[in-house]
Amino acid sequence: MGGPLPLADPAPRDGSLPASVARGAGERAFGVYLHVPFCTVRCGYCDFNTYTATELRGASQADYASTALAEIDFAAAVLERAGLPDRPAQTVFFGGGTPTLLPAGDLVRMLDGVRTRFGIAEGAEITTEANPDSVDVEYLAELAAAGFTRVSFGMQSAVPRVLATLDRTHDPERIPVVVAAAREAGLQVSLDLIYGTPGETIEDWRRSLEAVTAQRPDHVSAYALIVEQGTRLARRIRSGQLAAPSDDLQADMYELADDLLGRAGYSWYEVSNWAAAPEFRSRHNLSYWRGSDWWGVGPGAHSHVGGVRWWNVKHPAAYAGLIADDASPAHGRETLDDSTRLVERVLLETRIAEGLAIDALEADGRTAVAGLIADGLVNGEAALRGRVVLSLRGRLLADAVVRRLVA
Amino acid sequence: MSPRATTALQPASTPPASIRNFCIIAHIDHGKSTLADRMLQITGVVADRDMRAQYLDRMDIERERGITIKSQAVRMPWSKDGQTFALNMIDTPGHVDFTYEVSRSLAACEGAILLVDAAQGIEAQTLANLYLALENDLEIIPVLNKIDLPAADPDKYAAELAGLIGGSPDDVLRVSGKTGMGVEELLDRVVDRIPNPQGDANAPARAMIFDSVYDTYRGVVTYVRMIDGSLSPRERIQMMSTRAVHELLEIGVSSPEPIPTKGLGVGEVGYLITGVKDVRQSKVGDTVTTASKPATEALPGYTDPKPMVFSGLYPIDGADYPDLREALDKLKLSDAALNYEPETSVALGFGFRCGFLGLLHLEIITERLEREFGLDLIATAPSVTYEVTTEDKKTVTVTNPSEFPGGKIQAVSEPVVKVGVLAPKDYVGTIMELCQSRRGTLLGMEYLGEDRVELRYTMPLGEIVFDFFDHLKSRTQGYASLDYEPAGEQEADLVKVDILLQGEQVDAFSAIVHRDKAYAYGVLMTERLKNLIPRQQFEVPIQAAIGARIIARESIRAMRKDVLAKCYGGDITRKRKLLEKQKEGKKRMKMVGKVEVPQEAFIAALSGDTETKKDKK
């Protein structure tokens, strides 16, 4: 939910979806994303849709769960009217912002709302993101008891200097404590890292990776820092206070991550995600790459149902106002035509380890695969088995690969 | 103090004794147009309410830059001591590129006002035109302008002018074109000092063309000075260089709007309209006579304008190529000196190789194409004409580095110019350094007054066309002025340096340079391109070579990362739009072999603008 909202068609006020979305819906997984747009401080690199108390302009953090529950009701009605079959949620993901700024009871109420309106599938994956300094054993135990299965900690780095540049307030010493608490509560653990922060050396990065593997999390995400326009970080770089992250160093860091995580038993399953075993892959995350259906609840949240994408208004106060009027909180939407869907499919599926079926490509794209193998960007054996799977180098140049496949 | 003439003399029946033909020689921005405007006002040919600044400069570019590209003539009535005169003011182009046009304008006059800014003193181009005027035996009236400026130092510059043309500083008139101060005295002096025209009224008609202008509504308007005989309406006229005959549709004088007349007699200045649509049929310097009673001998001094500087002009958007062709075809109608032919470049696509009289001419044409025709253009580095003799004794004329023959070269000859640089004496050292670094040979140095110096050099024209003027200006804080004139050819040790991208030659960057400078050029261009071309998925060597010999080398390291780490919370739309943007960007790339080069990189490298280092995407 970073950056400006895309330009697109206006969304109808009642949120109604075209009949086309019901086609093949029975075969598509359904998930729910719940956005919690609050933080205690805004980190300098962050352009996500989140607000500190002073930025809220009247929208209340305390009322948020109730507002989100109202959108869940709205969602159930829209999907039913569109003729979609009842599909229990396979995955539920609370992201932010900082979901754990809300009392555990609020998260539980929202999850219960999903359960009431859609049902929760047997063995569903239910995750919340958490800030290492905003949770404790009791909090996590309450979530686990309510059905949460997974917690993803925004660790970012083990090096205090790097955390300071990112404006992260937590103490790296908190990580082992909260990981142990999550384990005790019976939750799967994921640790999120950011690399390529200005001033971060390859040795700093190694320290962070080693700190992660020492905790034996089930899942690791490692994201290259993106300097987004309009953030304080971007301003500090422009003014020369900080050095811009170098692509070459970020490439070295990615390779080091893949190497160290690989040795520690983790395998990549998406460009920026590694899991200790196939069952620990984030199914919610994969649903984005596989073109599944999901409803995104909350300000600025994105949704996708059967080839229609839409996104909600960004400000919590505007959002709450629309919900109170029983209107769709969507700000814009787009209906994908066949060729756009194909482009998206190539764009998304090439990023995952199982890859993209070569059959899905148009003739030029299929021809381009040979060149990509020759250039060492695509795995030749996988291609012979009919799939485009990126090599390590190909993962670092994934956007270039996609351009060649859809040119 | 002279009053305005109460009745003007009638054209076609004005005795030569009552005619004064003169021009104004001045540097850009020394106030020639403002003075001319004031004369129009004082003589009453333009009503005060119709006065607009720089009345005579018709084109926007001229008005904005304050320079005159196309000369025109204005007939003004003036009375002195009870006698009425017809004053013909012939406006001359002020720049060195138009030396030939200037010389023809001067040939149409008996006298010249030498106009100099009282705060700046004479400049190199004015000096050059003054030489031309003296060469034509013109009576010179020295005038200091802008004496109302606080910075004016008329005593100093009057002494300078007197030193140049002889006479006393007291003879130098002091005027202000802005306030009108001294302009009436100046008009009186024109009458007193400038000789009246001489000619044989009974001889076959001979009129010299000193300008020809294309007008959208009327076709070509030809400005002439009658030397002998007369011309009348409805007569059939003949151009003596081509023998072409045209019907004279209209004949008249500008005052300053065109006024048809019963004809033009000896010594008069006016215009002709024949209905031709192309200025090439009415060439500056040519002689007009009548078809019924043609003159046997043309007036001396006619030459075809010869391009000195060549450059490739390319539309930035390849789709604009037909528009560029159309625009050039139109400009050609009004600019006999412009010539062009189609050319293609790997780096820049389809364009035209154009020949210009000089650098300003190039600049003016490019700017007119951009402004009047709305085209976005890139010009390749200017080049001059080389005569290359190969070992088998063949001689090739090269106006474009791509025409430079391969194989063994026996000799290369290049055009040489005489250069005059005028500057305050403090800059002599730095100017000499610059001229010497451009293979200049010092001819002489003269003090003009106490603190200004004229340096004279011979220099290869090729050394001047590149960025000499920019360097000269920046090293002298803008104080130096430059003039040059052709001075033959010389043999020199010149080589062609090619620039190769992954082994593929990039034609737009080939250059003909002196062997001693080949290495520096190679290093400059390879470094520039290294900084401008985005990284590719493979390493790209950039080399500079003379023939097969590599003289400089850089390389662009392979790009290692081109992937977005994540899609924010399922915002796939944003990522797809980014991809679409990247795909669009790719379409605009020029392919040199396997290397994708953004057009902007070529443009920046050609213009020397290396600030815009392109990152990927």
From TrEMBL, chain A:
Coiled coil: none annotated. Pfam families: Radical_SAM. CDD domains: Radical_SAM. GO terms for molecular function: 4 iron, 4 sulfur cluster binding; coproporphyrinogen oxidase activity; metal ion binding. GO terms for biological process: porphyrin-containing compound biosynthetic process. One of its GO terms (cellular component) is cytoplasm. Keywords: 4Fe-4S, Chaperone, Cytoplasm, Heme, Iron, Iron-sulfur, Metal-binding, S-adenosyl-L-methionine. Residues 24-267 form the Radical SAM core domain. It is found in: Cytoplasm. InterPro entries: Aldolase_TIM, Coproporphyrinogen-III_oxidase, Elp3/MiaA/NifB-like_rSAM, HemW-like, rSAM, rSAM_sf. It comes from the Bacteria. Probably acts as a heme chaperone, transferring heme to an unknown acceptor. Binds one molecule of heme per monomer, possibly covalently. Binds 1 [4Fe-4S] cluster. The cluster is coordinated with 3 cysteines and an exchangeable S-adenosyl-L-methionine. Belongs to the anaerobic coproporphyrinogen-III oxidase family. HemW subfamily. This is Heme chaperone HemW. It comes from Labedella phragmitis.
TrEMBL record, chain B:
GTP binds at D29, H30, G31, K32, S33, T34, N145, K146, I147, D148. GO terms for cellular component: plasma membrane. One of its GO terms (biological process) is positive regulation of translation. SUPFAM superfamilies: EF-G C-terminal domain-like (SSF54980), P-loop containing nucleoside triphosphate hydrolases (SSF52540), Translation proteins (SSF50447). It catalyses: GTP + H2O = GDP + phosphate + H(+). InterPro entries: EF-4, EFG_III/V, EFG_V-like, G_TR_CS, LepA_C_sf, LepA_CTD, LepA_IV, P-loop_NTPase. Residues 17-198 form the Tr-type G domain. Keywords: Cell membrane, Elongation factor, GTP-binding, Hydrolase, Membrane, Nucleotide-binding, Protein biosynthesis. Its main location: membrane. It is a peripheral membrane protein. Its EC number is 3.6.5.n1. One of its GO terms (molecular function) is ribosome binding. Belongs to the GTP-binding elongation factor family. LepA subfamily. Belongs to the TRAFAC class translation factor GTPase superfamily. Classic translation factor GTPase family. LepA subfamily. Required for accurate and efficient protein synthesis under certain stress conditions. May act as a fidelity factor of the translation reaction, by catalyzing a one-codon backward translocation of tRNAs on improperly translocated ribosomes. Back-translocation proceeds from a post-translocation (POST) complex to a pre-translocation (PRE) complex, thus giving elongation factor G a second chance to translocate the tRNAs correctly. Binds to ribosomes in a GTP-dependent manner. This is Elongation factor 4. It comes from Labedella phragmitis. The lineage of its organism: Bacteria, Bacillati, Actinomycetota, Actinomycetes, Micrococcales. The gene is lepA.
